[in-house]
Design goal:
- This protein is an alpha/beta fold.
- The chain has three domains: 6-109 and 298-459, no CATH class; 136-249 and 280-292, 3-Layer(aba) Sandwich (Rossmann fold); 483-624, Alpha-Beta Plaits (2-Layer Sandwich).
- Helices cover 41% and strands 20% of the residues.
- It has 16 helices and 20 strands.
- It has helices spanning 18-34, 85-93, 117-130, 147-162, 182-191, 204-216, 234-238, 250-265, 294-326, 331-341, 439-473, 483-495, 513-520, 522-539, 563-583, 607-624, and strands at 6-13, 36-43, 72-75, 99-102, 111-115, 137-141, 172-174, 198-201, 226-228, 245-247, 274-277, 280-282, 348-357, 375-383, 411-419, 422-431, 501-510, 545-550, 553-559, 592-601.
Length: 630
């Protein structure tokens, strides 16, 4: 990567929407012209605007974004659909040392790209008046609490008054900037005593919904009522009739924004904090300026058919991938599934899934994970062009994006990977061209989040099962095998013998435990038992199996054992006892009586018989000790 190339960050929501996907492409075109790297921080918000399980937590990722690495920042606040989240991002961006430009909403303290809302609306209204000679013009507003709706309605009234017409024209209807109010608006305008000749809509989506509602009521467009929209969306261009509109010049926005950021990063002074983007009116079929071209529309229908067919295949790929991810048992196997099946959202050069780690370096899908340390580790690392070779082990999480050895411009898209309130980390993808991924990439990320949640739950269940198993075969006080665990482990070793081997059993009994309990209490007696168990376990370094049979008695079993190993075991046990007693501040000492037995046997050997002989040897030794305590 060129050390001189500037980095620009873009913060926004729903980049795969039709408007913003084209906006990203325009920014990438402008970035390549200026030799810039682009980092897009994309959020989904609450999916479908109604899902409480997704939205708020994905913004936690922004806490770990180091803004000092950027030479300029672009803020697209219009797409955020979770209440308060645009403000949360703004507060983060106010800490940046570089310039920040807001491109879709005015933010005090930032540089702003302001749209000439009034100029675009005026051009459409004057076109209806001057070109089509309409005098009865209605207006479909967005919801009137929105500043864009207020500005566009104000300009409509101003133009109507200037032209000597009623300021409310043929009627005003409050819409929703979406597709839900078309029928209500159609009924309103058709119920007026003086039906409008034309209706200006405050955006293309309402123009489309109104057109559909009017056509369902046998109203021809534009012959009976002409329609215009605003914003110049792709949907408006594809709808029949094509919607007359005023388009936001996305490439103009991108070029002016990035040029200003570069100039500011280079120390050049800017006397005007805001830039004005003037919408360009596009007069089309819905006002009657462009006739219907049947051949062209047939080609468009064929293109839509191809897209629909491709969409169907992409759904099949998504369904198959969901089934494969559902069978994943490890994080590393997720990489295999993604690498082999990620074919339905566009060509990409690289994909990385970075996971949170805690201060003990547990990844976020591990049930031992506590809370984020601010460090990340790669979970999925796909580098199709080998531009990031050698970086996986040396990834520096403070940068968020792996360093590339390529000298071309890079366009990265960074998104949170989470499930409900559980944030696992973030993803980074670099597409092969200037276009952003389609919506199926979002489906992939959601499924990766679900898979990580399942892995987390599975890890919890496995550890719980292991804990329950340990409770059934482990001694609570000492942590070594209990009688059941010792018997099971030892019998498994015996059953595995194909030919005769030398086996060894030992029975070890503490001396004087009753005295310790009577004189110092059972708490101190338990402490002495734990100390005895630790001494015995320290001696078991040659394949011996040790267990607490109960009380103060311990068993040892070993397969393929020798007299030399036994002598070493006894010698080390005595040495550890001596060290403990020398360092023990309590007024008692630990000592053992023990009995051992070695013999040759195969799988027919009986553990009970072997232990019984060792036990008798232990009692012989215990009884031989002078002044012994029970």
């Amino acid at each position: 990567m060129s050390s001189k190339r500037k980095r620009i960050a873009v913060f926004g929501c729903s980049f795969t929407s039709r408007y913003r996907s084209n906006l990203c492409r325009c920014f990438n075109i402008a970035a390549e012209e200026l030799d810039l790297d682009m980092h897009y921080f994309n959020s989904l918000g609450k999916i479908g605007y109604k899902n409480p399980l997704y939205g708020d937590s994905e913004f936690d990722m922004y806490e770990y974004v180091d803004l000092s690495q950027y030479d300029g920042i672009v803020f697209d606040g219009e797409g955020y659909n979770v209440e308060g989240m645009a403000d949360k991002v703004i507060r983060k961006l106010r800490t940046a040392k570089c310039a920040v430009i807001s491109i879709s909403s005015h933010v005090d303290g930032f540089y702003n790209i302001d749209f000439d809302e009034t100029g675009g609306i005026r051009a459409l209204i004057e076109h209806f008046i001057d070109h089509h000679h309409f005098t009865k013009i209605g207006f479909m507003s967005g919801y009137l609490t929105h500043p864009d709706a207020q500005a566009r309605l104000t300009e409509f009234r101003k133009v109507m008054s200037e032209r000597g017409m009623p300021k409310d024209g043929a009627g005003i209807f409050e819409g929703d900037f979406w597709f839900n109010k078309g029928n209500e608006a159609a009924d309103y305008f058709l119920s007026l005593p003086d039906r409008p000749e034309a209706i200006v809509c405050a955006n293309d989506y309402m123009a489309i919904s109104l057109s559909i509602a009017l056509k369902n009521r046998d109203i021809r467009i534009p012959e009976d009522i002409a329609i215009s929209g605003f914003d110049g969306t792709i949907e408006g261009k594809e709808f029949l009739p094509h919607i007359t509109s005023a388009t936001r010049e996305r490439l103009d926005i991108a070029r002016k924004t990035l040029r200003l950021l570069v100039d500011l990063a280079d120390g050049k002074q800017n006397t005007e904090p805001d830039l004005i983007i003037r919408p360009r009116p596009v007069f089309d079929q819905s006002c009657g300026c462009v006739p219907l071209n049947y051949r062209k529309e047939a080609e468009n229908l064929n293109r839509v058919y191809d897209l629909t067919r491709s969409y169907g295949f992409n759904i099949y790929d998504a369904e198959a991938s969901m089934l494969k991810l559902n069978k994943v048992e490890t994080v590393r196997s997720m990489e295999t599934v993604f690498s082999e099946n990620s074919v339905n959202f566009g060509e990409f050069n690289a994909f990385f899934l970075m996971m949170h780690t805690d201060y003990e370096k547990h990844p976020s899908c591990n049930s031992d994970f506590t809370f984020p340390s601010g460090k990340f580790i790669p979970a999925i690392w796909i580098d199709k062009k080998n531009e990031y070779t050698g970086c996986r082990r040396n990834f520096d999480s403070t940068y968020l994006i792996p360093e590339s050895n390529s000298d071309r411009c890079h366009f990265y898209y960074i998104m949170s990977v989470n499930f409900a309130e559980c944030v696992f980390g973030y993803s980074v993808i670099e597409m092969s061209g200037k276009d952003i991924f389609n919506e199926f990439y979002t489906v992939w990320l959601l499924n990766l989040g679900i898979t990580l949640e399942n892995l987390l739950k599975s890890d919890r269940i496995r550890k719980l099962i292991r804990k329950l198993e340990n409770l059934s075969i482990k001694d609570d006080l000492t942590g070594m095998y209990n009688r059941r665990g010792f018997d099971n482990k030892s019998r498994e070793s015996l059953a595995s013998l194909i030919e005769k081997k030398t086996v060894c059993t030992m029975v070890i009994d503490m001396d004087g435990l009753k005295f310790i309990n009577d004189q110092f209490g059972h708490y101190e007696g338990d402490r002495a038992i734990k100390s005895a168990a630790e001494i015995i376990m320290k001696c078991c370094d040659s394949g011996e199996t040790a267990g607490r049979a109960g009380g103060d008695e311990f068993y040892i079993f070993a397969v393929d054992y020798s007299e030399t190993q036994l002598a070493r075991f006894i010698s080390r046990m005595k040495e550890f006892i001596r060290e403990f007693n020398e360092n023990n501040p309590k007024p008692y000492k630990i000592d053992f009586s023990y009995g051992t037995y070695m013999t040759e046997t195969d799988s027919s050997g009986r553990l009970e018989d072997l232990l019984k002989i060792s036990d008798s040897h232990m009692y012989e030794q215990k009884l031989s000790k002078p002044g012994r305590r029970k």
